[in-house]
């Protein structure tokens, strides 16, 4: 197991914690991470683009003019895609872009993402933020002391609502629970900060 320093809100080392190798020391494969991130982003697409076919466009169904003798093409409908205001041929229709990656692969990718942060020395552990109220300035000063920006914070503490609300106006900082931990967010942010109590929950989720 790898030992990591546990810091307090003043940036001082207060103890050490052990990170299990089966989660934080997994060989990283870019192809696995790529598949899972693509799946996540595809699932976020709304897929609401739509166009009207000739069957949906409003218009009269009468024949425009007689079949023979006019010299014109044999037009049968004003809703034809060939006419202005007519339907669209092969236009987009509402659809889902989501596709699933096997559960085992998603779990493995999450371990790889955490391992990559550990390998890059971009993973930090804090004992607690100790916020007694919603105060962005207070949280910003703690992050300034820790010298962390572009940061993902994982917290399952009792006051994580205070933490989440205090972080909303700080650019490039996001707070999530262990249950919401995902590959895309881990890779998106440069640094990962774990509240010490969340390590056990991560281990319980991924072991």
From TrEMBL:
GO terms for biological process: translation. The keyword ATP-binding does not apply. One of its GO terms (cellular component) is ribosome. GO terms for molecular function: rRNA binding; structural constituent of ribosome. It comes from the Bacteria. Keywords: Ribonucleoprotein, Ribosomal protein, RNA-binding, rRNA-binding. InterPro entries: Ribosomal_uL4 (IPR002136), Ribosomal_uL4-like (IPR013005), Ribosomal_uL4_dom_sf (IPR023574). The keyword Ribonucleoprotein applies. Transmembrane segments: none annotated. PANTHER family: 50S RIBOSOMAL PROTEIN L4 (PTHR10746), LARGE RIBOSOMAL SUBUNIT PROTEIN UL4M (PTHR10746:SF6). Belongs to the universal ribosomal protein uL4 family. Forms part of the polypeptide exit tunnel. Part of the 50S ribosomal subunit. This is Large ribosomal subunit protein uL4. It comes from Desulfotignum balticum.
């Amino acid at each position: 197991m790898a030992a990591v320093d546990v810091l307090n809100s003043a940036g001082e080392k207060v103890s050490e914690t052990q990170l299990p190798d089966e989660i934080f020391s997994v060989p990283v494969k870019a192809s696995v991470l790529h598949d899972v991130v693509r799946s996540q982003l595809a699932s976020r697409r709304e897929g609401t683009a739509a166009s009207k076919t000739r069957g949906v466009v409003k218009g009269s169904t009468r024949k425009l003019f007689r079949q023979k003798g006019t010299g014109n093409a044999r037009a049968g409908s004003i809703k034809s895609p060939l006419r202005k205001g007519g339907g669209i041929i092969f236009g987009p229709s509402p659809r889902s872009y989501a596709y699933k990656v096997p559960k085992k692969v998603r779990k493995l990718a999450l371990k790889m993402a955490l391992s990559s942060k550990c390998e890059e020395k971009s993973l930090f552990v804090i004992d607690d933020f100790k916020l007694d109220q919603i105060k962005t300035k207070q949280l910003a000063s703690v992050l300034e002391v820790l010298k962390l920006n572009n940061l993902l914070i994982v917290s399952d503490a009792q006051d994580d609502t205070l933490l989440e609300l205090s972080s909303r106006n700080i650019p490039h900082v996001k707070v999530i629970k262990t249950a919401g931990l995902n590959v895309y967010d881990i890779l998106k942010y440069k640094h990962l900060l774990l509240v010490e109590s969340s390590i056990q929950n991560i281990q319980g989720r991924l072991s």
